[in-house]
What we know:
Elements: H1 12-19, H2 23-31, H3 38-51, H4 57-64, E1 69-74, H5 80-90, H6 93-96, E2 99-104, H7 109-121, E3 126-129, H8 136-140, E4 146-149, E5 157-161, H9 163-176, E6 181-186, H10 196-208, E7 212-217, H11 224-238, E8 248-252, H12 255-269, E9 276-282, H13 285-289, E10 295-298, H14 301-320, E11 332-335, E12 338-340
Parallel strand pairs: 1-2, 1-3, 3-4, 4-5, 5-11, 6-7, 6-8, 8-9, 9-10
Antiparallel strand pairs: 10-12
Helix pairs in contact: 1-2, 1-3, 5-14, 9-10, 11-12
Amino acid sequence: MAREKGEKNVTFQDIANYTRFSKTTISRYFNHPESLAPANRQKIEEALATLHYNENKVARILANGQTEIIGLLTPNIYNGFYSMITEKILQTYERYGFKFLVFSGAETEGVERKYIRELLAYQVEGLIVLSHTIPSMELASYGIPLVSIEREDRYISSVNTDNYMGGVQATGLLYKNDCDVFILINSPTKADVPGYGRVRGFLDTCAEHHLDYRMVEYPMGHTYDETVSAVTKALENNVLDAFPGKKKGIFCLSDTSAIIVLNQLYRRYGCLPDDYRIIGFDNTPASREAVLPISTIGQQADTLVDTAMTILTDQIRMKKEGNEIDLSRPVHAVIPPRLIARATTD
């Protein structure tokens, strides 16, 4: 029932009077509910409903210093993987009770350090970092509960897909499609980034089967339009018309670039020609809704996010209990990928 206009805010004293518990017991309910017997918690919950209690979040933050806010730093939102993961992180509110401050779109160290300072000024209780820009050693130095997803992670806890296995699966599918030349299209990727495992999986599979392959790099764009331009130019200069009479198997390290490749082929030929096969990586919603559903290596996004939140909330709980987070022993969880064959491969 909505509060009538003019009604006063319900205080802890009002709840104490109604339940005949002390104000200390009422405070324990809000700060440490597990310390109360279930029957007492139920009695207080009934009182809150009857009295139409609306919690003053600002007062609670000032009282105990716990903001219930987590900072999220992502390179961009246009990339299908980052938008998918960001959405699933925001959806964890019902389960974990944390709100999120999201900063996106910088990809420069100075700006991202400014973002982190801003998040720390809001006294966020933890950080989730998808951005690759700031080294993990520096992130660890902030001494705050922190977990990363799919980025360099030597000094911080992380959750990553088994990218090497994904690279093997993708290249293996193109091999089963009897491709003659195997083409990896990717932006420059450092060897210490988990995503480089996709490159290693591609190279090892090509070596194992003595395959003819090419690696085509394009500069990473800061916007979707820049990425479209870069991928299109790489495709036109290095793939189209380069291998006449050969069946070309194209492995893109993201669904975003795979969709761009498919679009360019459709613009040129009006279809996906018989001598092209395409597979992406991520299993984003857009890969399923493309003009032809794109084969991909599925990152298990729900599992990635749930595992990251479990690691982070464990760190937050340890800090609340007065325990130091052991930065010398970061947790690294690895989630298996899933091969998803669709219309762009047989």
